[in-house]
Design goal:
four-stranded antiparallel sheet, about 10% helix, 24 strands, mainly beta, 4 helices
Length: about 350
């Protein structure tokens, strides 16, 4: 078959394809090998969204649309049951979920296409092993492989999608001490081929997905040291963090970004938002940057957007009688309430891709 777009510049073809609905794109994968390669590439992205775990399923908030109820919708994986699902991470439009019941069941799910892949059980840990301290999901570009990390205080294991197996990569105590509760986050955020965690008020640690080992991460900017801050994830290769500087009657929320930290570069201040101290609860869980000049955070029952230019808070009600995380049913859920996470729409398959 002749190439259907040989006389059209590739960038124009990509722009046209991005405007089409997912069902059409799924069919058009069969038009030619070049179209299939473009459509299923991780770089072929559509809208960025926020995935919010609720008691009855997941809600998806479109971050490219105006902030109102019309921007949210319920979505359910095909494997959905009335069980507890924890978001382990997202990368290239794929979301890694853990179903917690009598045993752990791991899934890769593409919310855009609805495709999913149940992964092999992790039999490395004994049955009584219930809690892992750190976890994450990301992409190793060198080996073209998606990987899951689980780490306890004494052992770290990795799942390789390309190899379709779990293996132990580290035994012994963690090389970093996570002692500051103001910085603690157990889900590693993916950026530049590594997972990232807050260690304390002035440093990060990373897990290199290629080398499969922990190491020190990029240092913070000097003006960020000593303040409460937390990493958050967006699409792409940029690492973001949010710092909160508290005064007597006011709070300054600062957003910072860093691109390609493995190269020469530094943190760049993206936003600085002065807020009154009575808005502290609205800044409870900073999640992501929204369209325009604003940011989104969570309270116990609402999702809040703050418009920096207009100084306006907008809220969307998530739950009427329950908090936004699932009700606790046992020790695991008490210790690990699943937090929302951003993902970008792609048509990447969650199956093995070699």
């Amino acid at each position: 078959m002749a190439d259907p777009n040989k006389d059209i510049p590739q960038d124009i073809t990509n722009q046209i394809l991005r405007c089409l609905p997912v069902k059409s794109l799924t069919r058009f994968k069969c038009v030619s090998q070049s179209w299939r390669s473009v459509i299923t590439s991780p770089s072929f992205t559509r809208n960025q969204k926020l995935l919010i775990p609720l008691c009855g399923g997941f809600k998806s908030l479109d971050l490219e649309k105006p902030f109102d109820e019309k921007a949210t919708k319920w979505i359910f994986p095909r494997f959905w049951q009335n069980k507890y699902y924890r978001i382990l991470g997202s990368c290239h439009g794929l979301v890694c979920l853990l179903e917690v019941d009598l045993r752990y069941v791991f899934f890769l799910w593409n919310p855009c296409t609805g495709e999913s892949n149940q992964l092999p059980d992790c039999d490395i840990f004994p049955l009584e092993w219930r809690l892992f301290n750190f976890y994450g999901f990301g992409y190793d570009s060198i080996s073209d492989d998606y990987k899951i990390l689980l780490s306890s205080e004494t052992k770290t294991v990795v799942f390789s999608l390309a190899e379709n197996l779990w293996r132990t990569v580290h035994e012994g105590s963690m090389p970093f001490n996570f002692t500051n509760p103001d910085c603690y986050n157990d889900r590693g955020l993916y950026s530049n081929g590594a997972l990232h965690w807050n260690v304390d008020l002035d440093s990060l640690c990373t897990f290199d997905l290629r080398m499969e080992r922990f190491q020190s991460g990029p240092s913070l900017d000097a003006s960020m040291v000593g303040h409460k801050w937390k990493l958050f994830g967006m699409s792409g290769e940029t690492l973001y963090c949010c710092g909160i500087k508290e005064g007597i009657d006011s709070i300054d929320v600062e957003l910072w970004s860093r691109e390609k930290y493995c190269l020469e570069g530094s943190w760049t201040k993206v936003l600085c938002i002065p807020c009154s101290s009575d808005l502290r609860n609205s800044l409870n869980k900073f999640l992501c940057i929204s369209r325009g000049n604003g940011f989104i955070s969570l309270t116990s029952e609402d999702i809040t957007r703050f418009d920096v230019e207009g100084g306006i808070f907008q809220k969307i009600k998530l739950c009427s009688s329950h908090s936004w995380w699932c009700e606790c049913h046992g020790d695991f859920r008490d210790a690990h309430a699943s937090e929302p996470m951003t993902y970008v729409e792609t048509l990447v398959s969650p199956g093995r891709h070699r």
